[in-house]
Amino acid sequence: MVTDAxxxxxxxxxxxxxxxxxxxxxxxxxxxxxxxxxxxxELVTPVDHACEELIIGRIQRAYPDHGYFAEEGHARAGALRxxxxxxxxTTNYAQRLPLFSVSIGLEEVGRGVVLGVVLAPxxxxxxxxxxxxxxxFVRGGAAPRRLEVSPxxxxxxxxxxxxxxxxxxxxxxxxxDNWVTLSRATRALxxxxxAAIDLAYVADGRFDGFWEMHLKAYDVAAGALLIxxxxxxxxxxxxxxxxxxxxxxxxxNGRLHDEVARSLEPVKxxxxxxxxx
Length: 277
Fold this sequence. Notes:
Blueprint: H1 4-28, E1 36-37, E2 43-44, H2 46-62, E3 67-70, E4 75-76, E5 80-88, H3 90-94, E6 101-108, E7 112-120, E8 125-130, E9 134-139, E10 145-146, E11 159-162, H4 176-185, E12 188-190, H5 195-203, E13 209-213, H6 217-229, E14 233-235, E15 248-252, H7 257-263
Parallel strand pairs: 3-5, 11-12, 11-13
Antiparallel strand pairs: 1-2, 3-4, 5-6, 6-7, 7-8, 8-9, 9-10, 13-15, 14-15
Helix pairs in contact: 1-2, 5-6
């Protein structure tokens, strides 16, 4: 089992690495990024690849025995596995919209995610935390502020966020019915375009909850850890613990969790969403 001292070391490394990748993202905004399509809606830019190369290179040099899993293809098994989205919100980034981020989580395989860092470099917002140590927010040179989920208790008073999968034309789990239902049941809904930022905002009480389907581990690992350390609740959309690999997730302040879950359409059989065994 990883010790607290080791986690503190790994967290400092992840923060420094995220800041380095964030600087690459900011420098890339000087011109409109070139775009390649991975699918009809799924974009990738040279900056995605540059950030991933930077992050994975740092991991390989600092912790050569660690594993990793990153969006643009780098993967290696290990008892400790870094889970990396080098540029979450690529569509926003390609449009030069400010809601994009670096997301770095660390999983102790068999024990779950043990630390998370989400950096929104254009906004100069850093969210970080580790297992048992709480979660924190820093902007600029200010002192860290502890993250705490919102106190909202009624769905009617809640502001929730969500996202829509690139494969929405290919699945009945397209989330549009959920949007309609919850737009009527809540104070407001938001769709920001970076799941990592959305989850960090739940941890900070800016959103009261978040749900989405068709997510990957690198979208949610860091943000979910932040929410749990901030006092919130994270499950898959079946109410279980398969949110990291199962590709469906509900994350809330805890008080709203069951009500949000009851409001969502049942997840239908789908090649992109793993049903409970």
